[in-house]
# Entry
Amino acid sequence: MKSFKLVAAALAGAVALLAAGAAPAQVRGKDAVVMAMALEPTGLDPTTAAAASIGEIVHYNVLETLTKIREDGSVGPLLAEKWTVSPDARTVTFELRKGVRFHNGEAFDGSTVKFAFERAAAADSTNKDKATFTAIETIRVTDAHVVAIRLKAPNPDFPFLLGLSTAVIVEPRSAATNATAPVGTGPYRIESWTKGSSLTLAKWPEYRDADKVRMSRVTWRFISDPAAQMAAMMAGDVDAMPRITGKAVEVFKSDPRFKVMVGGSRAKTLLAINNQKKPLDDVRVRRAISMAIDRRAVIVGAADGFGAPIGSHYVPGAFGFVDTTGVNPFDPVKARALLAEAGVKTPLELSLKLPPPPYARQGGEVIAAQLAKVGIVAKIQNVEWAQWMSGVYTNRDYDLTIISHVEPLDLGNYAKDNYYWNYESPKFRALYARISGTGDDAERARLLAEAQRLIAAESPNAFLYQPQWVSVANAKLRGLWKDVPIFANDLSALSWQ
# Structure
């Protein structure tokens, strides 16, 4: 727990600075704002890479989608003005917004929608939600601004899925270079990117609703250290930080210069397990790992108490949720018995690779200590974000890792081929196909409950908690989301009081 104590000491120092009268947060101008985030993305194209930090910067700001997911999780229009669903629930017809252009001057129309979705479904696509697009049977551009999408099976969530960052509409000529210079239809363009430090967005004057966009310039600073995050806010170097450490709540709540927002999420924080590594390919070993973990202690240690325990890859508040925390309850004695039953000789050594966010680094120490009590030695390896993406997510070179899956409606990850946790379950795939193919709400809820129980029983991962996200901002800044159904920041909504 040494590094956890160092973090706590650093945070205490930051609090002392505030008490000593750190420089007050200042409004830097009515048309500029400085935001902060913990993880710097390795690229800026959400259709080719999986990091949620990409969408935090570009989604709705630089690159836009047909639909828009609102703060309350509902779906509204964006590049599509409206849509209709056929009686058999398989054809969704979108009427597109007219007069929209990309930053390079090219027109947005039905052909660009067709290009974007066919690119996402292509054999060489690396879109993490590729399954959304391979589920499309045909795309017909019936008019320059009317697109009819025929699905292979009904999917009532389809309009929602098209509001995710993986469904942004890309301009064909610029698609190949979007990772470094994204060209979209949104209110902002990339002005500069100083790797390892900051990225600045500049308002695009030709945006269709430019007169409604108050911020001419938004600068993102990348600050991974929790103490440095708090110090930057206190000094007025940063105006807002969505998803700051929970330790900041009491510090900032007592200071009228700031406002603190604690919001809900659809995220799932989990101890991911490589299901093809021995002895982790044995469900008894995976269940033993789950039963060795006290979720509430992890929530306190990793998330400062801001979270709710979960037993499957599904969260309270989501449609069809059932409580599965009793399937693998905290039971170290049963955990040891399961390991013995599986023929595992202890101590069992496993790697535990941890990306930079505090919930992972701090949670890793808590979980390693708990696993040690049942004879599992989790050897912690702290890795940078790019290393995690390439080593863990892409190459699957790990035993255990801690990560928060922030996307809603992502239960289908367990039906994917070659996903990073190597879970292969024909039973779950068949069940998920039935879920995807039904439009009846009652039947869908029943099947979702069955899927949650199956995932809990087969324990491909150890499910920890649903996080609550804490955001801190200058009290005069308006328009920030409190609740976080997806990891996006609608910068066009920001304004100074």
Notes: The first helix runs from residue 2 to 19. The chain is about 30% helix and 25% strand.
